[in-house]
């Protein structure tokens, strides 16, 4: 009742019909297509919310795009709904026809550069997951090898029977600490150490003749989990990638937030204990020195008589090995402490865990959840802690999603 | 060159003129007015960017709003520009005619509830700062006293000669740890301890007959600094309020981010040292136990033979007292540690310091800046550390800005 007075006190008397020119419908069309590219299939209601366009305009624009084959209607929206969360119902999760960009228009390839491999996945223009391929490389391979392997993978995937035209390539790159390149469109936000002399996206774009875009690996993983994985029911979340390095992503309103110069999400270098062990960043007791894969392996070196492999740790933990379980619990509790502080700072709906350690499932997520519940303010402790569902495909798929979102409309 | 291929591959062939209905211009008008209410005077270019409306539509809509007196054109944009920052020039800072909502349409009153006072400021519909007033109250006054004082202040301010019609009231409330109310429009995100039994916004709305909205005090301070103060040149920033409690706000793209349930920005409860002293939140070594006003006063109790007042500490430091300076330096260094981790997580352009301790100026900001430079990743350490310019008016002015932004269009 208190909100009644004061309504429409500003826009009365505007005879919009005679004064205002017809809105640029080409612009509305571009915005609708851009939203579908960035966020994947959605209902008309969600498209109106996402673009800020009036429902009548969305209705007209989508009718035209359906008529000319740019869009197609697919089955009812089936994204999981977070129980009891009123925001989760906004256009997602409720039955409703989904608008999908025509998959036959083309496809992109997403590529992630791992420690000793390059992994690629095809994503079609309708956000369908296509085939993938991997190249094994020596540990700490150079940028030239990365270029050759990527060209090889992209050519192999796009030469397959039935491949749609290649529209672009996306790269998921690990941030090389201390190295920085400015965020121009074809440059990644960070490069591996020793890769500074090759502008990998530009070299690939020259060789392939399509746009090539790049982002941090954790940001790519977040894009993939939002579109296809564990992050689908959420608007606001934090992703933590527990891998050789520890990184992450901040997602607000389903947008990955990169910060002023692309440096956001570096949760690996938030300290768990400022008097703890030295970190490669020059800090002390950073999350990475407790929850990175090397830390977990090192913690088990005495028990194993050598550094175990990540797979040995995950399999050991799954089989009930107490030391492996404890190492993962310790990593999870450290992660939960930093996650709790992120909850106090950002109040997200969910913490999504990815990277090699996330393969431990609840053996990792459980301790993270308990640690968050113990550490965050009560106001901010109501947060879901979930494991990403895309595993090692999150990076390449998310790089593909980035490419789809970035191809100019 | 690599971005050429693939352009416009989706929207060719859409004969928008015959298929799509005329965009709802009433909606465009509402969006333009809402953006001006939320973000204050801006150029047409900024209005187009902020609303996502095509420039031609903005041009038409603003012509109509100028013709009917809803808008007026004011002098060239004069917001400070951050040197060397390409983002700072986006519509702000460059010469350009500003569009301002007609100040005579009405005004709002912003009210902040301090520890022993209630402070109010008038803000007119054109975002002009009006007069203010204060009521002193006993320490830890109750919600009933707060209601009476607020009604008294609002009636005094609106009864002055030449006052425009009252459109709404905004409240800046300190978060009572552990108490939470769901974020419905007229309810604050948190209430002081002991205030749970009175729905202050609803009671005020009933008594005054206008909409009453509320938010956390630090979020209000951020709104004010964005509109009128130190945050004007920035898009992405973190505000830290060092007061009796320590809180803050996250601003991305000039929007205060409140998180899932309004709990974002609680930087006071991010630990500086997890083995440090107990905090009222149940944590250990939280920023608040190092950089809250009570911590700074307690650190100087031996030197003063009693707890000094905040003013004594600031004046002592300004006069060169080494103990006062060291107490502020310690608070600043702790703040800088948490600020550095926020830089790693969010990569903002600026850290804005407000609250009583910010009265120390560079004696506080200097140590914060040094601590950030030492602690943040190099990628994220390029951040401005500035003192808010609005002092104790930031809360009430920001509450007024919230009210202006919230009155229904």
UniProtKB/TrEMBL annotation, chains A, B:
Keyword line: Kinase, Transferase
Segments forming domain HTH iclR-type: 37-73
Region span, Disordered: 75-98
The keyword Transferase belongs to this UniProt entry's keyword annotation: yes
A Pfam family: ROK
Gene Ontology BP annotations: regulation of DNA-templated transcription
Top-level division of the source organism's lineage: Bacteria
An annotated Gene Ontology molecular function: DNA binding
Similarity-based family: Belongs to the ROK (NagC/XylR) family.
Name of the protein in question: Sugar kinase of the NBD/HSP70 family, may contain an N-terminal HTH domain
Species the sequence originates in: Georgenia satyanarayanai
